[in-house]
Every structure is written in structure tokens, then in C-alpha cells.
Amino acid sequence: MKSTGAKHLAIHLDLDVLDPSMFRSLLFAKPNVPAGTFDGVAQGELSIEQVVRTLADVAQMADVVGLGVAEHLPWEALALQGMLARLPLIGKSPE
Question: Do 79 and 24 meet the contact criterion of CB atoms below 8 Å apart?
Fold first, then answer.
């Protein structure tokens, strides 16, 4: 990083670097997926603390001017949305 001379940094944080056993909102943590579906596909092993520490260290070398977060798949929130959409709620707009 230092050798580039960069003074400003835009960070792309792909959540797939996280260990799916510690952070469940990832492709690899999708419920009801047959075993072996993701065999051969690299999966993250980092903890949230490791990512935070790494990005904090990098921020000491350059001004962070942007942060993009990718691959967030909140399976539980999506399941809840689907469940609520099927409930007979008053004021629910017809499909």
C-alpha cells in the first residue's frame, strides 16, 4: 500500500471473506442447500474482528473515501419477508 503512494482509498468489502459459521448472511449459509453444493468454491475464514482490524490498519496509510459492501444475503430477513407476505393481514394489498 505504501509503495503505491496512494493518499485516498476506496474499499470494496466482499462479505464472502467472512467465515459463514460466524456470519450467516452469506451465499454459503443459504438454508436448505444440499451438502456439497459449494464444494470447490473458496469460502471465507475471517472473523469480523480480523476484517475490522485489517481495514483500520489500511486506514492508517490513506484516507478512506468510500466503502462498498457486497454479497450480503440476509436469508432470515428474506424468509421473514416471504412469511409476512403470505399472512392474511388487514390492509395488505392484493397480489
Answer: no
Q: How far is CA 31 from the centre of its chain?
A: 16
What confidence tens digit (pLDDT) does each residue in 51-70 have? 999 999 999 999 999 999 99
**CA–CA separation, 60 vs 81, rounded Å?**
40
Q: DSSP labels for 26-49?
A: SGGG-TTPPTTTTTTS----B-HH
* C-beta separation of 46 from 18 below 8 A: yes
CB atoms within 10 A of CB 22: 14
Cβ burial of 75 (10 Å; 0-12, 13-18, 19+) is middle
Boundaries of every domain in the chain: 2-86
Q: Does pTM surpass 0.85? A: no
C-alpha–C-alpha distance, residues 36 and 87, integer Å: 34
